[in-house]
Write a structure and sequence with these properties.
With 179 residues, the chain is of the alpha+beta class. It is built from four helices and seven strands. It is 42% helix and 20% strand. InterPro entries: CREG_beta-barrel, Hypoxia_induced_domain, Split_barrel_FMN-bd.
């Protein structure tokens, strides 16, 4: 198989799959490698994987200290793929993307999360004090804030995908894959 074909298969796999193993240099394991199963979305225009990692996620903490990472994806997760063969069989496609993870922050998402938590706490206090009507209103408001926060996350992801002007991916394919 030509290098271009390896790269084409790798791009297809990263686009078709939705999760993989994100390997980092662990801050918790004193520099040992650490692999974490993560879901991702691939940008339509570049194929660049996008992750939503919270500050509590071990991989996000590792990347904050050292942004070098590898995402490994296997065809086995796709419906009907590799069903008759061992996942390690060469006919079951696998791809590893290595490089530096870029952090993109959206402060509005944090505002939405804090607002959601605030309304939730207010609703719980109202419930504890016996004010059921206010408690119900706060719970309904919480759902609205949660929806708005998720919409901000999705919207910012789309915005970043459209604004991405650099042709080089945040994670580049290993040289073994032909790029």
């Amino acid at each position: 198989m030509l290098k271009e074909e390896y790269a084409q298969v790798a791009r297809w796999l990263v686009h078709a799959a939705s999760w993989g193993t994100l390997s980092t240099i662990s801050t918790h394991l004193h520099g040992a490698p650490y692999g974490n199963a993560v879901s991702y979305a691939a940008e339509e225009s570049t194929g660049r994987p996008l992750f939503y990692l919270t500050a509590f996620d071990a991989s996000a903490q590792d990347v904050a200290a050292n942004s070098t990472a590898t995402l490994t994806v296997c065809e086995l997760q796709l419906p009907g793929a590799c069903s008759d063969v061992d996942p390690q069989d060469p006919t079951c496609a696998k791809a590893s993307l290595s490089g530096k993870l870029l952090r993109k922050r959206n402060p509005l998402v944090m505002v939405g999360a804090v607002a959601t938590a605030g309304v939730l706490c207010a609703g719980l206090v109202a419930f504890k004090r016996g004010n059921q009507q206010l408690s119900q209103q706060m719970m309904r408001a919480r759902v609205g804030f949660q929806f708005a926060t998720v919409a901000l996350m999705a919207g910012s992801s789309g915005y970043y995908a459209l604004q991405q002007a650099r042709p080089a991916p945040a994670l580049r394919l290993d040289k073994d894959l032909g790029t």
